[in-house]
Amino acid sequence: MHGINQLVLIRCDVSCFFFLNPTIMALSKHVNPDKLIQDSHDKKSHYHGLTKANARQVEHTYGARYNTSPIPKYSISHKGINAEAAYQLIHDELSLDGSPVLNLASFVHTWMPPQADKLFQENISKNLIDTDEYPATQALHTRCISILADLWHAPSAKGAIGTATTGSSEAIQLGGLAMKKIWQEKRKAAGKSIHEPGPNIVMGANAQVALEKFARYFEVECRLVPVSVESHYRLDPKKAMDFVDENTIGVFIILGSTYTGHYEPVKEMSDLLDQHEAKTGHFVPIHVDAASGGFIAPFATPKLEWDFKLPRVVSINASGHKFGLSYVGVGWVIWRDKAHLPKDLIFELHYLGSVEYSFSLNFSRPAAPIIAQYFNLIHLGFEGYRAVALDDMKNARLLSRALEASKYYTVLSDIHRKVGSAMESMKDAVGMDDEDIESYTPGLPVVSFRFSDLYKEKYPEVQQHWIQTLLRAKGWIVPNYELPPDLQQVEILRVVVRESMTEVLIDQLVADIIEITEGLAHQGSSTHTLTILGQAQHKRNRAEQTEGSLKEGSGSKSSGTYAKPC
Ligand SMILES: Cc1ncc(COP(=O)(O)O)c(C=O)c1O
């Protein structure tokens, strides 16, 4: 028996001890909830004849209904549970996820019409690589490539070459690899070393992490061009030229920036590289990372020069699962002609009596997202895609103007500003009914914003990241993060306006942002209390993260390129 003043030391995990005493209880700084649950189980458990729940098992109520055993959380169970129980268990656990429609952090499309859902379901088990077995699926894949090559003005849709990928990331690796191989071939032909000095690639510091990954995984020096307010938070072509030399395999140009939606000036970069070639004789190609813009620019602003119309653009990638409006799992990479995809990257597969060509990083991949992409191309056509893009842009302008008109926020994205009148946003905001997309600065339907200087000055104690937390409490997922080097001291909130972000939802989002922003300005308001509560949200899943996943510090840092979910 423990006396009244006796301290009982309970070991709850390697890093945590707390002292139990009915009168004196010193709270530890950290309690391991996983361990807490393990220790709190009934010690003698004969749960309807089920095996005793041990520390690593999860008991669930459906066990009683379906007569199934508890299952271990982190190791495979000896005996499985029936499908109904497994479904219900997983279904319930996944309700902790955010709602995809309200996930405004993501560029990835989340809704398709029921007919597309049906096609997806019907083809869910098909593997795109099995071309011999699924020749009709392969035909749709090839047709998508021709359609995109044509849309992006390849000199000849027949002469262009490309492939589906799992997303833009894989497509970017392939585009980069092709440029690296071509550089190596040229160096070897000239009798020069390909190692001393090695190859380099130039991109804005606002690049998405997939671009930096290419450089690191495939041993190409990554030359990040710092961004500035003057360069609109994206690549400055003139500055980029300082980073280009005879070992530059190419320049990655982004349409548009993951941070703010700004399109990078492909034409200007191309012109500068033309001048460079005229002076030095070095041909430096451009790969356009049009992850999002590849399905916005051709429809919303078809006059914009960014694609294969510019001879220096040798390859383009886009995500079918972003503004291509398909479900997640499809990207595209297209080369303007076969000359820009070195033979070395193409594998000839002799398979079941036929010959197939493979030039992708993955072998097997689901065919259903590609079929869904083809569905969109024939269902929407040019007019349909344009209508969706214009609607997204209109809703993004609405959100931008409302935020700026509140005076609490400054919008960094420029798509609501008239061309050539970047300083006239407030004038634009009042009573403007001009729907002509051509009069606005081209870009993605993305709204990046920050506290206005006025708000910061008046309420210096209010932290911008609280807005993210408090919006989350209302269901909205709106990320708050730092801009890339050299603007990392600036934090932005960002909303991606996808098709599902209708005017009704914009309306509600604006109301919620204003309510929260004003609430935070008033000390002692309930919003202040909620802020503290909301910060705890970040900690969810902490227990899960300790099992099997990498701990902070296990990897090397990116150079500040965009590494948040998209
Ligand atoms: C500019 C850019 N490039 C590449 C990617 C990666 O695309 P994916 O998620 O399709 O691999 C993203 C994702 O948002 C992006 O915005």
Automatic annotation (TrEMBL):
GO terms for cellular component: cytosol. It is an enzyme of class 4 (lyase). Its cofactor is pyridoxal 5'-phosphate. One of its GO terms (biological process) is L-glutamate catabolic process. Its EC number is 4.1.1.15. Keywords: Decarboxylase, Lyase, Pyridoxal phosphate. Pfam families: Pyridoxal_deC. Residues 547-560 have a biased composition (Low complexity). GO terms for molecular function: glutamate decarboxylase activity; pyridoxal phosphate binding. The modification N6-(pyridoxal phosphate)lysine is found at residue 322. It catalyses: L-glutamate + H(+) = 4-aminobutanoate + CO2. Residues 541-566 are annotated as: Disordered. Belongs to the group II decarboxylase family. This is Glutamate decarboxylase. It comes from Tricholomella constricta.
